[in-house]
Design a protein that fits this description.
Blueprint (H helix, E strand, L loop, with lengths): L4 E6 L3 H12 L3 E7 L3 H10 L4 E2 L2 H7 L4 E4 L7 H9 L3 E5 L6 H12 L5 E4 L6 H13 L3 E11 L1 H6 L8 H17 L3 E9 L13 E8 L4 E10 L7 E9 L2 E6 L6 E3 L4 E3 L14 H13 L9 H20 L3 E2 L3
Parallel strand pairs: 1-2, 1-4, 2-3, 4-5, 5-6, 7-10
Antiparallel strand pairs: 7-11, 8-9, 8-15, 9-10, 11-12, 13-14
Helix pairs in contact: 1-9, 4-5, 5-10, 8-10
């Protein structure tokens, strides 16, 4: 019998906990352990999972012998963990974005090139059946691409309650990786120039030092245009925590994709409440694009031929989003030089 892939998780928050459940369900995987330094979170994890819960990355890697590691730390905290994992030659999956500076993304890319392990970046929308269908249709049509217009935004719940580190991020770093990777994946092109504008009227006055909303226009290498519009200050009364609308315009064609309408709104006699998209099937198994993403990562580590976002694509996304933030700072167009 072939030994299972031993997968460890670094970061036991919302995403890390979900990923740990996916590993536990996978028939060829074993949860090797979870690293979570925050005592209250570690206590919750210990009650949920029959696996070692440790506070140190080195302890997790050296004492519990994983084959692969899912890095689910906050966006700005990937490089130290990533270098430890890659330096040991282990397989690695980074939650998007790969890093929030060009320098750190480059360091991780160099480390990955020297490592025998498989490396993947978690751009989960590539596993969304709607986007997969559009990519197939675009390939069949073969029409020149003109523009992509993408609106992805969250309610204030995300920066005020869900993320304790929103002040160290922006809607650009938190949301643009989803949409920019999708624009690159659907088009086969990469960004070459960016121009951006932003607004600070809601969160900064309350001590959360970040942008409320960022809009960016990007020239792609195929001479098409991508417009990204993301914020995280929608009213919390909105039924869903996010809004996601995507348009792809090609010669003679328009693909109009709405992602946030798949949940359920329950109307009673006195109010409406959002039930949300079920996260399990009728047999209690996890479902969703982010679940399929982790399953494919395990299959990749298991030696299967799986197409996944690699570290070079993660590096390019970080380069482009860094250019967007440079445009915000300088009020100028910024060329993206890879």
């Amino acid at each position: 019998m072939v030994d299972p892939v031993r997968v460890a998780i670094v970061g036991g928050g919302i995403r890390g906990s979900i990923f740990a459940r996916v590993v536990g369900e996978h028939p060829r995987a074993e949860l090797a352990g979870i690293c979570e330094p925050a005592p209250p979170v570690a206590e919750r994890l210990a009650s949920e999972f029959d696996t070692p819960i440790v506070g140190s990355v080195d302890e997790l890697l050296d004492k519990h012998a994983p084959d692969a590691v899912i890095i689910a730390t906050p966006d700005f905290a990937h490089v130290e963990v990533g270098l430890a994992v890659l330096g040991r030659g282990l397989h690695a999956m980074f939650e998007k974005p790969l890093a929030t500076t060009v320098e750190e993304a480059g360091v991780l890319r160099d480390a990955a090139s020297a490592s025998p392990g498989k490396v993947m970046v978690g751009f989960e929308n590539r596993w969304n059946p709607k986007f997969q269908a559009v990519k197939r249709l675009m390939g069949q049509a073969g029409a020149p691409l003109i523009a992509q217009r993408i609106l992805l935004q969250d309610t204030e719940f995300v920066p005020r309650q869900m993320l304790s580190w929103a002040g160290r991020s922006t809607p650009g770093w938190f949301l643009f990786p989803h949409t920019l990777d999708m624009a690159m994946w659907l088009s086969g092109a990469r960004p070459v120039e960016a121009y951006a504008r932003g607004v600070r009227k809601v969160l900064a006055p309350d001590g959360i030092d970040t942008w409320d909303r960022i809009s960016a226009t990007i020239l792609m290498s195929d001479d098409s245009i991508v417009t990204l519009d993301s914020g995280w200050v929608l009213p919390e009364s909105r039924p869903a925590v996010f809004q996601f609308h995507y348009e792809v315009e090609a010669k003679g064609a328009l693909y109009d994709i709405t992602i946030d309408d798949s949940g359920i709104t329950h109307y009673s006699a006195d109010r409406a409440s959002y039930v949300g998209t079920p996260d399990t099937d009728s047999r209690g198994r996890l479902v969703g694009a982010h679940i399929d993403m982790i399953r494919d990562f395990i299959d990749l580590c298991d030696g299967q031929d799986v197409e996944t976002p690699d570290i070079e694509q993660g590096y390019e996304v970080t380069m482009a989003i860094a250019a967007i933030h440079e445009s915000l700072r300088t009020n100028a167009n910024v060329r993206i030089r890879y």
